[in-house]
Amino acid sequence: MSEIQPARVRFAPSPTGHTHLGSGRTALYDYLLARQTGGKFILRIEDSDQRRYVPGAEEELMHTLRWLGLEWDEGPDVGGAYGPYRQSERKEIYLQYARKLIEMGKAYYCFCTPDRIDKIRKEQLANKQNPRYDRTCRMLDPEEAAKRVAQGERHVIRFKIPDGGAITAHDLLRGDITVENSALDDAIIVRSDGLALYHLAAMIDDYLMKITHVIRGSEWLPTFPLHEHIIGAFGWQKPVFVHLSLFLKPSGKGKMSKRESADLIKDGYSFFLKDMQELGYLPEAVVNWIALMGWSYDDHTEVFSLDDLVQKFSLSSLNPAPAAINYSKLDYFNGLHIRKLDKERLAREVKPFLLKAGYVVDDTKLALMMPIVQERLVTLDDIIPFGGFYFRENIQPELGDLVGSKMTSQETVLIAREIMKILSELPELEPAEARLRSLADAMGYSVAQVFGIIRVAVTGQKVSPPLFESMAIIGREKVLERIQNAITILENMN
Fold it and tell me: Annotated catalytic sites, by residue?
């Protein structure tokens, strides 16, 4: 349980591209803490940097969160008492607080040009110094600086890091983090276009929206001391900060990045949540999987529903150690959650994959298929190899597959004719298995050999769900048509 009841948490992504696994995990942990404590889960869009804005990214994000089952209580599309919930709509709020920092002597106007800043940086690097602003404008008379601003001179606003001493920021997972102020830069908090940077905007928003817990990625640890300074400058109560573990590549070597996704997709995986649905993963499986990348309940329980996680999640069980992304584990969870689905939902989930593959789907057949394919599916798109043949108008088996094991094509066609004769004489397919077993014995072949011929003829595959149950779903007339087609192929081989 959380130390603060109820918790107000925010998931605050930037709409600068596709939503990745790390963002999904952060949103999940936010959601779990809010639901567990009877608090609020807030969606805030941090789009102040319009130069990096990607059209459609916000819509994709919302769709993905809802697909995962993570509904928010406050946000751009649902409103709330602390809006607006897009940073681009809160510009004047940030400027008000930035000016307050200047009035308090905690920030200052900086008029240095980009060229000058670049020159300083190059000189510092050449001297093997850490690049940082040289604080030239920090020395300006505040009244003189204000006049230059009033005259329209281009400027930014920088936060004034205190001289000397150190700052200690507390992270729930990592404890106290102490940094000498001399190691910190006077960071820009408002750009020349008047838009606040994350460092200022997020701290203001967290305060005004009464956020109790900030759960975010470890990439924010280097600027955590700066954020502590800004919060302290206003004298605000600090939220509980939780910096989550880093994601490593599946190999466990090196940080996972968005750039890796192009190679992953070739293997049927992705770093982006938008792809998970298209690749045939259930939201239940994805939630289960990402929950365990940085958190554990005990040393043996692995399978969780979203409701289970709400009950069992705790911040104290988070692990700050880097987590390697294990896609085999995702497949494992997906198979488990597929088998937990009721047959009606499974049919709804697999149908789009069949339609996308060009099949005309008979819903009655689809429903009949579910009991015999459900145990075999790892991803939803596995329905194509395991169930596509049910809806195919014509089956054209590979010649090599159609010839029976350890048989010639001549032997195979003789057996196929006998199979056709038996099935043609039966008004129903139900007694076919026993008759065909007897045929195998009579002709001196194994049951596997005879059934293998039928399987390839009827399904076009050497591997399929249970043969005779599949034949019943396909229907007698279509089965006879496919066996006759196989006979014709075999005859043309001889």
Answer: 258
